[in-house]
Amino acid sequence: MTPFQSVVLGLVQGLTETLPVSSTAHLRIVPHYLGWGDPGLAFSAAIHLGTLAAVLAFFAGDIRRLAGAAVEGLRRRDLRHSPECLTAWAILPATVPAVLCGLGLKGFIATEARALPVIAWALILLAPCLLLAERLGRRDRDLTELSFWRIQVIGLFQALALVPGVSRSGSTIMAGLLVGLRREQAARFAFLLGLPAITGAGLLELMELLGAGPGGEQILSLVLGIGAAAVSGYAAIGLLLRLLERFGTPPFAVYRVGLGAFILFTLRA
Question: What is the pLDDT at residue 80?
Fold first, then answer.
């Protein structure tokens, strides 16, 4: 990646990571149609660190409360002493399915799963699932009303996002709606749940990239990509929360179907 390409892809990643449209898919689609080639799984995962910084900044208050409650739970030797404490400690096991699937299927995810037809169908197929969750979800619960096992259900859905095109925020928002969370609360929890997975995957791939001995321009490109993802990601979080509150998930479902259909059409042409 040149510095310019990295900035463009960083902006794309930051915007689409927060929206339920799959950032990994867009990091494959945009370079393909611009004739840049596939940036690869390692680069795509590494610039997720920019989005991680955006989430940490946007939800700093939520993260402080959860961290404080987790520490207090340890001090009291009671991990259920408050709803915030239960949520904080439930996030860790809820991350396990995504971690295990990511490690076990890394070869498939880095190769066959990045094929454009796979991405197109993943974009299309999750769209009706989002609409179904919108229709069936009670949308009357706050984040602190989630039980331990409901959080684990959302964690299982997060593992689906390892397939490019599914979308981590899309699958977790969908699961959040299904277990009764209000739209805005489902989105907030989607970001908080993703923190361990994004951190681990991003740092792992960053170390892999640096271990390959990149040159000065490659390091600059990576830094610019991460920075661009942080800026666009922060702006996109607020946009997502406003859009979900006003319109729900249907606009994203329509976009997913349209983009997936466009990919399949162009591949046949």
Answer: 85
CB 187 within 8 A of CB 179: no
CA 203 to chain centre: 15
Instruction: Report whether 72 contacts 215 (CB < 8 A).
Output: no
Nearest to 109 by CA among 32, 52, 166: 166
Contact by Cβ (8 Å): 31, 44 = no
CA 175/CA 76 separation, integer angstroms: 31
DSSP state of 31: H
Q: What is the reported pLDDT for 18?
A: 87
Torsion of CA 89, 94, 100, 105, to 10 degrees: -150
> Helix (H, G, I), strand (E, B), or coil: what is residue 174?
helix
Whether 179 contacts 146, CB under 8 Å: yes
**Element of type H or E holding 137:** none
- Over the stretch 200-219, which tens digit does the pLDDT of each residue have? 877 877 777 777 777 777 88
Distance between CA atoms of 28 and 165, rounded to whole angstroms? 10
Contact assessment for residue 104 and residue 165, using Cβ atoms and an 8 Å cutoff: no
119-178: pLDDT as tens digits: 999 999 999 999 999 999 988 888 888 899 999 999 999 999 889 899 999 999 999 999
H helices of 137-215, in order, are 148-159, 168-178, 183-211
Query: Crossing angle of helices 116-136/250-268, nearest 10°?
Result: 160
Residue 82 DSSP label? S
pLDDT < 50: residue spans in the chain: none
Q: Which two tokens stand for residue 176?
A: 């959040």
CA distance 188 to 55: 10
Smallest CA-to-CA distance from 102 within 43, 162, 185 is with 162
Q: Among positive and negative, which fits the CA dihedral 128, 50, 163, 258?
A: positive
